[in-house]
Amino acid sequence: MTLAPDERPVAALFEGVVGQAPAVATLRRSARRPVHAYLFLGASGSGVRPAASAFAAALLCPSGGCGACNTCRRALAGTHPDLVVVERSGAALAVDDARRISLLAQRRPYEAERQVLVVADVHLAIRSAPALLKTVEEPPPATVFVLLCDTVPPELVTIASRCVEVRFPPVPPGVLAQWLVSRGVEPGRARVVADGAGGEVDRARLLAEDDGYVERHELWRSVPGRLNGDGAVAAELARELLAAAEQAVAPLREQHAEELRELEAEAESLAERSVPRRREIVERHHREERRWRTDEIRAGFGVLARAYRDRLAGALSAGTNPGGEVERCARATEAITAAALSLERNPNESLMVESLLLRLGTEG
């Protein structure tokens, strides 16, 4: 489809949003006649943040999103004064955060005709939902809300109903693999990376540059063959797996450091004394790094579960069940799934992984 001339600049802003054509089409249309609130529904790595920055640039740009002017550059970099990003101050989006959002919403734009207020982690606004709802229901005419939400829990259904919902589903592995190949990644490696990226573009990008990813993938695949029911073996293997998860965070830390360096250079070019909202950016980096480590363990559990499913499929295709292999593999898959779900409760990772491996070794 050929874009109309007035659509091409806006479309160019969204080049960093991969595999989300329906969402981008919605935002391109919305940029011409925006309403007061949007709910971006999807995991953080699925493209919601770059989409929010691009959408904000289109809303703030005097040309409707040229992608090249100072306004667009600052919006994409997160330094435009009329693009305000609100990060939670603690484990949840608290009532104090909702009050701060209400105050920010009343602010007049500094440069543009409107301001864009991006609120992250809205799915964690359980207790602050009533206060946030009041702000979204009664917005000032010059404020556009963009709420970023992983899921919509029951407490937030009313808030969601006041917004235009834009969905960002996980990017299919095939699309991720093609995108990685287009960036110069070898096809075989691209398939392995896409399989472990969980539908998240950010994760796929970093894993493709991570020389240790394939080795970590094979480490998790090797687990069934190394377990023998010995507690010492399970403990040592758990240490290896968790150490590998910690090493996996290194590329993300480097990306965060590069982001800060770029923001510092941008601030210097604009004669600003420091990076705007630097503390919030650093706190966001720390949260992303913790989440990345958890996602690495979750992805490892996925690799481990597939290893047992492959064993199960082999036994079924052979039509044999030596020593109850089918039942053992089925129980192992269930135990791994339960362990992956438990990560949401922030368990003691060392004890949890060691306990799981001991159980798998004993039953296997």
Would you kindly provide a written description of the structure presented here, covering whatever features stand out?
- By secondary structure, this protein is an alpha/beta fold.
- It contains 16 helices and 5 strands.
- A 5-stranded parallel beta sheet has the order 2-3-4-1-5, sandwiched between helices.
- Helix 5 (95-105) runs parallel beside helix 6 and helix 12 (231-247) crosses helix 14.
- The longest helix has 41 residues, at 278-318.
- The radius of gyration is 23 Å and the shape is elongated.
Sheet-strand content, in percent, reads 5-15%
Number of helices: 16
How many domain regions?
2
- Major sheet attributes: 5 strands, parallel
How is this structure best summarized?
The protein is of the alpha/beta class.
Topology at a glance:
Blueprint: H1 8-13, H2 21-32, E1 37-41, H3 48-60, H4 70-77, E2 83-86, H5 95-105, E3 115-119, H6 129-137, E4 143-149, H7 157-161, E5 164-167, H8 173-182, H9 187-196, H10 201-208, H11 213-226, H12 231-247, H13 250-269, H14 278-318, H15 325-342, H16 349-363
Parallel strand pairs: 1-4, 1-5, 2-3, 3-4
Helix pairs in contact: 2-3, 3-4, 5-6, 8-9, 11-12, 11-14, 12-14, 12-16, 13-14, 14-15, 15-16
